Amino acid sequence: MRSLEAFREKLENHSSDKEKTVLLDYPIVYIHNWKSGEEYEIYIGESNDVVRRTKQHYDKARDKGCWQYQLKKNSASLYIIGHEHFNKSLTLDIENRLMLYMMSVENVKKIHNKRSNRQNRYYTDDELNEIFRFIWRNLRNTDSLLFPKESVIKDSALFKASPLHKLTQEQEDVKDRIIEKVFHALKKNERGQLIFIDGEAGTGKTVLNSSTFYELYSEAEEQGREDLQCYLLVNHDEQITVYEQIAEKLGLNDRYGKVVCKPTTFINHHSADNPIDVAFVDEAHLLLTQGKQSYKGNNQLEDILNRARVTVVMFDEYQILTTEQYWEAQILNHYRKIAKDNGNHFELRKQMRMAASEETISWIDDFTKNKKVTKLPMDGTGYEIKVFDGPSELEAAIKKRAGEEEHELSRMIATYDWEYSKNSSMEERMLAYWEVRIGDWHKPWNRELKKELGRKEKRRSKTLSWAEQPQTINEVGSTFTIQGFDLNYAGVILGPSVKYRDGEIVFDASASFNAKATRNRTLSDGTKRKFGETLIQHEVRVLMTRGVNGLYLYACDDELRRALKEAAGSQGKHETLLIKRK
Q1: Where is the Schlafen group 3-like DNA/RNA helicase domain (predicted)?
Q2: What is this structure's pTM?
Q3: How confident is the model over 289-338, as pLDDT tens digits?
């Protein structure tokens, strides 16, 4: 960049009167960006005086340990964003949203901002969305790699789990309580504190978890507590990848070391004699409640509680999918009671994933919780439910949706009712892939097509969730790849384990290939029981609550398919089920 004097001279002498006023007299937002290899690093800020603020950054550029040093070293570029309607609050919100978007860009390696500064209501807040879209379109015209399509960003798993989202008031209240509790425990040298958050699928548990986790680090730095020991744990391969990217892009790994891991790894590397400060556990319903090959204990939650002063868990008992994760009612209630007795139990109720009416959500609840197929309600939100006569028609509809720019993240998913094994040889069965097979129709199970990718595509796919990988439009996902993630449209295949008999849905464990759900479980009193029916019911609920914009259904069971079509009042093949379009 040329000297700051030349920079100001250009603004003053080569801009229109309106441009000079907007850029020099109004608040502005700016983006410093530079290349690090093939990727970008960025800093986003706002100021009332862009020249003075840029000079402050360059004055710090002598220190090799700060991000400002990269401005001179790597020939950084600077975007200055002004608007005649900008005020302080609006520029802060634009800055926050740019941070949220750009952290989700695949080609952005790191964001150097410390924390966001979210605003509440203000006079011109109704203009935020329109102005931001205008800004993003113009930025995209300058560099489509750094500023990709909004639909690509919003569909990314990184965006959906980002700690930079503006929280609801319900989430803000819980976040503030958690942070308050953590610092109180640290000050009093307490340990074993449990904060328990209940919330069903789509109620914002992941965003609350990541936001509180990041905010806690930022708050600790402001208080001079840079020795804070804080870990984020999740027992899910796909979600681990997302959280690791967040920690890397926000610089947490640089400052604190590896802060994201699986529960077993955390337990094996930490001792109850030297507890960390706080452990955040997302998808805590996936914690193990009995030992297995890699985990030698009996209860991962208890082991984590013993290794942290404060433990924060996000829990949804309707998403427990295997016998290893099954919680006996009295044990689960024991932990809830501990949290309640200390004023540390919270419940998230608002459905934030599905753009559907309460009546439509209740219909899905009736199906997945009460085993009933009730008449589908009218829904004026635009949420769409369709039922199909065959899997090929379902596939065609999902691919059509995925071909639309705003619905690219549409995929087929199914109950675990067809064989799949990592340890068994497909060659012995003369199979190219493990597949979902229905009559003459067949499609590979999730992750099967990855083996056909080139080296570059395989490397790129490591940072993407299953549904974000392009080849997965030709696969069928399962709960093990889609749990915790969203789709635009979910094409759900209800396999032979989901039947309809005598006016009620039946979850038939004998028709499932999910051995982790159907095998015996040894209880705390030494008796053995099967929980396959309950766990398959949970599996169906996970699948049917993935779609943000719509749910497409095909049922293998003839009676269930007829019941669904009757409930919808459909007269022909794959008609929209009484759902009002926008």
Answers
A1: 193-557
A2: 0.89
A3: 988 878 989 999 999 999 999 999 999 999 999 999 998 889 999 999 99
Nearest to 198 by CA among 313, 275, 94: 313
Tens digits of per-residue pLDDT, 9-27? 766 676 677 777 888 788 9
**Domain extents in the chain:** 4-148, 169-348, 358-568
Q: Tell me which of 577 and 328 has the higher pLDDT.
A: 328
Residue 151: closest CA among 101, 77, 204: 101
Half-sphere exposure for 95 (CA within 13 Å, toward CB): 27
From the list 118, 149, 26, 34, the residue with the least C-alpha distance to 81 is 26
Q: What are phi and psi of 45, to 5 degrees?
A: -145, 175
Residue 507, SS3 per DSSP:
strand
Q: Hey, which residues does 444 pair with through a beta bridge? A: 435
Both tokens assigned to 285: 């319903």
Segment 65-74 long-range contacts (CB within 8 Å, at least 24 positions apart) = 67/41, 67/43, 67/112, 70/34, 70/36, 70/41, 71/1, 71/32, 71/34, 73/34, 74/34, 74/35, 74/36
Angle among Cα 138, 143, 144 to the nearest 5 degrees reads: 90
